[in-house]
Amino acid sequence: MKKYTITAVLGDGIGPEVIGSAIECINAVSKKNNISITWEKKIAGEEAITEYNSVLPIETLNSIKKNKVALKGPITTPLGNGFRSVNVELRKKLGLFANIRPAKNIQGVQSKFSNVDLIVIRENTEDLYGGIEFRENSISSRRLIQFAEHESKINIQRGSAIALKTISNTATKRIAEFAFSYAQKKQRKKITIIHKSNILKYTDGLFVRESEKVAKNFTSILCDNMVVDNACSKLVTKPELFDIILCPNLYGDILSDLCSGLVGGLGLSPSANIGNTISIFEPVHGSAPKHAGMNDVNPSAAILSGVMLLNHLGENAAAKSLEDAVFSVLKDKKCVTYDIDPKNPASTSDMTMAIIKKIKK
Ligand code: NAD
Predict the structure, then answer these.
(1) Ligand 1: which of 266, 273, 352 to mutate, judged by most atoms within 8 Å of the beta carbon?
(2) What pTM was estimated for this model as a whole?
(3) All domains of the chain, ordered by start, with CATH?
């Protein structure tokens, strides 16, 4: 029997419901595949502030570092003010440089298109999401304004808040090499680099240039590039043009939510955050506070994140069996949540049970 210890961070809002469902499903499929998983439950986010006075307690971080693999629920990050994103912290502190977000049509799920099968690969540590931001009228933002005006000879409105967009050679090469190797391994045909290098000539310009350099070492994979605004328009009219999308952090976050909308919504979209030694799997969706505790949201995104986790562990048979069970329940449409069947919605727990019943081996 193969044994694993995995960190589970249930998260805020609907996190405990959907991650709870995913754990039940993974346990069920593990039992049938001679796998034993011990879940080390740790906290982060709102709950952790009360208990540890920190959104990301060292105990949680250490557990993930030790186990190398985690299943994580969404964490609420207050809008505008309050604490900074736990996700940004986690990705930076654990070196989770690649974010993989697949979007593929699922039989039985109504969507505007029937030919979507793409994967967004997003650089996860830099760009405007690097967390380097200065409040308006702070000493730091005033100093930065002075410095930037002096260097650029362009006036900046006094009292502006400032965020820095940083794109490095090293991080771009790392994500591009990851994306092209991933494409090769998954027998994908094309990578489209998404950017805004017509305006952001140095930052996005560097991202395109370094990625295209890496592309030259992978001659079996086509490589093109597209400006992000054009990509948005093409994605909602001709999504079949895309195979793998490679992009900096911010565009990747936005485009992957857009892509999940192409195939039936956030309730179905899983993701993986991959580093050199540590990986965290989580649904793309957030904590949806209005639905918290209502037992009504779709657990599929969290369960399919569990499928990605099992594949990552090399437990491909168990992963396939769990994925088939989720797809089968979605196809039957007899026991699915409100986002899939608004007229006759099932609860999160009933849909979870229906999936568990479908697990063959
Ligand atoms: P959200 O993804 O939480 O919810 C947006 C809407 O999508 C919901 O109102 C709901 O209608 C739908 N939805 C989401 N998940 C669903 C599911 N499983 N089944 C069915 N419908 C689902 O986005 P938001 O409201 O913008 O964000 C809420 C909070 O989550 C914010 O604090 C945000 O910062 C945080 N967030 C966290 C993560 C993360 O931890 N990875 C990701 C995104 C947002």
Answers:
(1) 266
(2) 0.95
(3) 1-96+270-361 (3.40.718.10), 112-127+166-262 (3.40.50.2300), 135-164 (no CATH)
